[in-house]
Amino acid sequence: MVFGCNLNLRHPHKIQIGDHVIIDDNCLLDAKGDTNQGILIGDNVFIGRNTILSSKNGDIILEKHVNIGFNSYIFSGSSVRLKENCLVAAYCYFIGGDHSASELDKTVYEQHSLSKGIEIGSNCWFGADVKVQDGVTIGDHSVIGTGAVVTRPLPEYSVSVGIPAKVIRDRRSPQNNS
């Protein structure tokens, strides 16, 4: 393992780190919670500088060969899982939770949290500044373009772009190069 400078591990007894893992400078791994497993990092994972992994009674699972670019943020209120060989560019956010705002007589802060979780298939590629919202599942071998905001499930082999992210093609189909 290689740890950069100023690494903060909160609740380290709930953080499992595999072999050949690199966690760059200024990262925070926070596995708080009473009912969760915590943060599980597989073999050969890279976590770029200034990245935050934060669970709040949720689990974060990074399977083997996941690469998280710098200044990224993964939050889990239940479960966020990135399967093996995912490539995540800089400034990406995986937001595995939300707040209720249904009670008008209470502030949002006073209301309960919600979380459906996020499931990312294997061999997915996220361009810089992608946001993935709670409740989303992304199929294996998908590509999500720079700046996209993923608000709903995406099928395997999809190429998606935009706000909200929309599928523009299937990677298995030949590209039109005209």
Question: What's this entry about, in short?
Answer:
By secondary structure, this protein is mostly beta strands. The chain has strands spanning 2-3, 8-10, 15-17, 22-23, 28-32, 39-41, 46-47, 52-56, 59-62, 67-68, 73-76, 79-82, 87-88, 93-96, 98-99, 113-114, 118-120, 125-126, 131-133, 137-138, 143-144, 149-150, 158-161, 166-170.
Describe the protein in words.
- With 178 residues, the chain is mainly β.
- It is 0% helix and 40% strand.
- It contains no helices and 24 strands.
- The chain has strands at 2-3, 8-10, 15-17, 22-23, 28-32, 39-41, 46-47, 52-56, 59-62, 67-68, 73-76, 79-82, 87-88, 93-96, 98-99, 113-114, 118-120, 125-126, 131-133, 137-138, 143-144, 149-150, 158-161, 166-170.
- The strands form 4 sheets. It has a 9-stranded mixed sheet with strand order 1-4-7-10-13-18-21-23-24, with no helix packed on it. A 7-stranded parallel sheet has the order 2-5-8-11-14-19-22, with no helix packed on it. Strands 3-6-9-12-17-20 form a 6-stranded parallel sheet, with no helix packed on it.
- The radius of gyration is 17 Å and the shape is globular.
